[in-house]
Amino acid sequence: SKIPHPKRVIAPLALMIIAALVFSARNQAAYWQNSQTLFEHALNVTENNDLAHNNLGTALQELEHTDEAIFHFLQALRINPDFELAHVNIGNSLNNLERTEEAVFHYQQALRIKPDYADAHYNLGIALTSLGQTEESINHYRQALKINPDYGNAHYNLGVALSTIGLFEDAIHHFKQSLKIDPDLEDSHFNLGVALYKTGQTDEAIRHYQEAIAINPDNAMSYYSLAVAFYRKGDMTQAIKHLQTAVKLNPDYTPAKNLLKRLQNMQISK
User: Fold this and answer.
1) Is residue 185 a contact partner of residue 179, using CB atoms and an 8 Å limit?
2) C-alpha distance from residue 209 to each of 37, 190, 216, 222 (Å)
3) Mean pLDDT of all residues in 79-107
4) Are 153 and 122 in contact (CB under 8 A)?
5) What angle do CA 148, 140, 26 make, to 5 degrees?
6) Rounded distance between C-alpha atoms, residue 155 and residue 25, angstroms
7) pTM of the entire structure?
8) Inter-residue contact 73 to 57 (CB < 8 Å)
9) CA distances, 13 to each of 155, 186, 208, 222, 259 (Å)
10) Is the alpha carbon torsion for 220, 222, 228, 233 positive or negative?
């Protein structure tokens, strides 16, 4: 009978909040609290400051004050309706609240203003994926990559979308591209393993599952997938070993428990 294979093809990457000013790369709460104070002061001493509203919204979003962030992004757009950055940022905040269709509208507005905005294409792709509009999401990931061929997250999410509709060979290419940019991305190794497994490239799939485990040794799904690949190769010992690890990590992981019981029964009946 058919062995279930995990489907970890939902993009886990966080939507990007892009600040309009260039700051330190630190993302600590104290930094954003200081930024909040700075931009609140800017709004107190200036009028119709769309940039300050946008950046205050960004700081508030980083502090997870999403409703307040949306208010300030809306203020920025009231002052400057063609502020593409504010459209992207409010889209991100709306997406965080699962108001995805509203988010799509703002990403589309950003692209109306600036058609070569790679981040807007990328985030629109994520939103469309969550709405089940996979073909459209693929188009926007491709657009992002046309603008920026080294956009690792876009390569990854394009691979995810292509896998969803069964285009595994194309997905393999984009997962590999994402790993050229970030060799330590666990999910790229895992999903590349899935795509390789689906196309019959079992040894390569095993290698990438092992890479995913080396990066994160606590993910039961990776051990389960590795076990399935070893089972395909006829290596029952390795399959059982990795299934036992998967169940140890997650005792409620039903596919792993069922397959482990099945393989152990097969060994007993020999």
Assistant:
1) yes
2) 46, 5, 10, 6
3) 94
4) yes
5) 55
6) 23
7) 0.83
8) yes
9) 12, 12, 19, 18, 30
10) negative
